[in-house]
Amino acid sequence: MSFSSSFxxxxxxxxxxxxxxxxxxxxxxxxxxxxxxxxxxxxRVLMRAGDPQRLSFVRSALKPFQAQVFVACGxxxxxxxxxxxxxxxxxxxxxxxxxxxxxxxxxxNADLETDQLQCPIPKGGTSPLEHNxxxxxxxxxxxxxxxxxxxxxxxxxxxxxQQQVLKQVGDLLGMPGAELVTARDDCxxxxxxxxxxxxALLFAHLGASEQADLERLSRAMLAHPELVAGEGRFDTExxxxxxxxxxxxxxxxxxxxxxxxxxxxxxxxxxxxxxSRAKHAVALHLLKQLDWLTPLTxxxxxxxxxxxxxxxxxxxxxELRFDATTP
Length: 327
Hints:
Blueprint: H1 3-6, E1 18-24, E2 27-40, E3 45-49, E4 55-57, H2 63-66, H3 68-72, H4 75-78, H5 83-89, H6 97-109, H7 134-147, H8 160-173, E5 181-184, E6 190-195, H9 196-208, H10 212-223, H11 225-228, H12 234-241, E7 246-251, E8 255-260, E9 265-271, H13 276-290, H14 295-305, E10 312-317, E11 321-322
Antiparallel strand pairs: 1-2, 1-10, 2-3, 2-9, 3-11, 4-6, 5-6, 7-8, 8-9
Helix pairs in contact: 5-6, 5-7, 5-10, 6-7, 9-10, 13-14
């Protein structure tokens, strides 16, 4: 089945986007419009709110699929087959000493040096190891070392590493990787412009446990959620409190992707104005609608993420609707 045939939804009856309202003292202060879609592994749009074909850059939600090269080429095994190294390769971490240490260990095991990292030194930091993408970059370099690819140019779109990322993502989407649109992410690595439904399809594959490389990565993320983001951060708390049921990985500019482990279902969310608070509010709203987490877990997460400060709260309106053409 071709990819394009899976997402011919533009002429279907409209389903309104979700709406996140920020209330201060009970009065409306801000409104965010949010698109969301659920897909299965075959690329079928099962449920949606807003436009499943909406284009956006996937940003850091791409990291588990960039790390797939690290596993597939054997570099992860060379690093000691350590779930912690796989988790940090998928991470958008907080730059703590523990996070920096895991990225450094990944480099050390591949006989690489910190100064070979091409991610920036974060503001107020002293080393690129503290950058939130250092684990991804360390895995990139370890893959290049393993495959005898050039190290200095590992971020260039035409580098064999980045071409392999495109191929593997294209294979998951059922399309040629060369057709994917790339752009430079803030860390210097290429990211991809995808339809929201394509993002959901990727995460359907990630949680399905049917492909060995992705299963190893998803298992590592769930085993070490504290490395994927950090204490108190949304992805870490959802995976930790979800007891292995849900994989969560966000990206900048209002991207949030989740998958239901073992069921081959992916959920992708895009906030039109890029607000992180809105994507977290919608994610919890939809996790409740989909019954992917227990009521107690959702209540705990809601207390943490839906009440930003005293007298301020986030309210979500709307819901996912079943797609009328899904058999």
